[in-house]
Amino acid sequence: AHHQDKVLGAIDLTRALIGELGATPRAERRVVLAKRIAELQQDKLDDAEAAVETLGEVVRLRPQDADAWKRLRSAHVQRRDWKALCEAYEREAQVRREVRTQEELYRSAAQIAQHHLQDLTLAARLYQEVLDRGDPECLAISVLPDLLRKLDDGRALEAALERIPEVVPRAPQAGAALRELGQRAEGRNEDSAAIGLYESSLEHVPTSVEALDRLAALHEKRREWELYLRALERKRELVIERDQLELRMRAAEVLERELFDPAGATRELLAAEAHAAAGAGQETPTVEVSKVRRRCLDWLSRLARQLERYDLLAAVTGKQAAAEEEPASAA
Fold first, then answer.
1. For labelling, which of 84, 187, 216, 228 has a CA lying 20 to 30 Å from the CA of 125?
2. Where do runs of H (alpha helix) occur along 24-132?
3. Would you write out the chain's pLDDT as a tens digit for each of its 331 residues?
4. Cβ neighbours of residue 101 under 8 Å, at least 6 residues apart?
5. How far apart are CA 140 and CA 162, in angstroms?
6. Do 161 and 128 touch, CB atoms closer than 8 A?
7. Cβ(144)–Cβ(138) under 8 Å?
């Protein structure tokens, strides 16, 4: 009975306030009355639908009223009306002045669109608003490209990828975005543009082996051998010793066969042989390293004769004799 009396009291009070609201022309007073009515409707009368209607009038009269927006969203949650909740977040974002507040509101709207409404087009549009406002949580940066790929919206995807380096410069996400743009440019046979994008990626993430691999492949395709060798050199600074050996051998091949520079090839092979010798000198050298070293020494021997470097030839011959002992130890 006590609870029923309280409910009846709330009903009477709400009716009285609604009557006063109808007779009040002043906007500020109407806002105060409407907020009190909505509070009673939602908290005392459990009438979220009526509260939504009342609060809609409040935010129309006072668009910057954060408390009214918060209570309106709470009423939508109470009704489990996710579409209306998403719209409320977006509408508030459109009228709020602070960029950080806008970003937070758009982010909430985007998550509702994605997870509750499963409306990928709407979610993508809202995440784009988040990205345009700096995305301090890096949520749009991680989610938006995947959504746009699912939507097969290549133009919007490229626009988003171009924006990411501006939002998070020098971050891994910036490098990844530019690499993807480079791959898309390659797919359109725009090799010059792709090279520029991979170089930009390396400005953000200088340690990206993937970007260097793509650069090297494009320079090789275009027979830009000096640039190709520079890409190999940059990669060599990042990889483990065993991979450095392979890169030295490849550089030597290009220097000799494409640039007709046996002296340059010799320098690369000497460095490669030093890497191989270090690997062969380990307690358990691999058969592969031993084979590469012998191949390297044979190549050096040929180049030493071509260059008439007999001091080098003598040194290489001595190493070849010593290398004959390696198979037994490697086995």
1. 187
2. 27-39, 48-61, 66-79, 82-95, 99-115, 120-132
3. 544 545 556 676 677 677 666 667 777 777 788 788 888 878 778 788 989 998 998 898 899 999 999 999 999 999 999 999 999 999 999 999 999 999 999 999 999 999 999 999 999 999 999 999 999 999 999 999 999 999 999 999 999 999 999 999 999 999 999 999 999 999 999 999 999 999 999 999 999 999 999 999 999 999 999 999 999 999 999 998 778 899 999 999 999 999 999 999 999 999 999 988 886 555 445 667 788 889 999 999 999 999 999 999 999 999 999 887 655 444 4
4. 93
5. 13
6. no
7. no
C-alpha span between 268 and 245 (Å, rounded): 9
97 contacts 66 by C-beta, under 8 angstroms: no
Token reading at 243: 């991979």
Length of the chain: 331
Instruction: Give the contacts of 160 (CB within 8 A, at least 6 positions apart).
Output: 128, 131, 144, 145, 148
CB half-sphere exposure, 74, CA atoms < 13 A: 15
- The residues, any chain, with a CB within 8 Å of residue 183's CB and separated by 6 or more, are 194, 214
Tokens of 195: 């090279």
Which residues have CB under 8 Å from 261's CB, separation 6+?
255
C-alpha pair distances (Å), 307 with each of 78, 262, 311, 315: 86, 8, 11, 14
Q: Per 3-state DSSP, what percentage of the chain is helix, strand, and coil (rounded to 5)?
A: 80, 0, 20
Region of 73 (left: φ > 0; alpha: ψ -120 to 50; beta: rest) is alpha
- Per-position DSSP letters for 142-207, written without gaps between them: HHHHHHHHHTT-HHHHHHHHHHHHHHSTTSHHHHHHHHHHHHHHHHTT-HHHHHHHHHHHHHH-TT
Residue with tokens 């410069």: 169
Find out whether 35 and 64 touch, Cβ atoms under 8 Å.
no
Task: Please state the pTM of the whole predicted model.
Answer: 0.81
In angstroms, the CA 238 to CA 234 distance is 7
d(CA 50, CA 327) in angstroms, rounded, equals 88
Quote the CA–CA distance of 120 and 109 in Å, as a whole number. 12
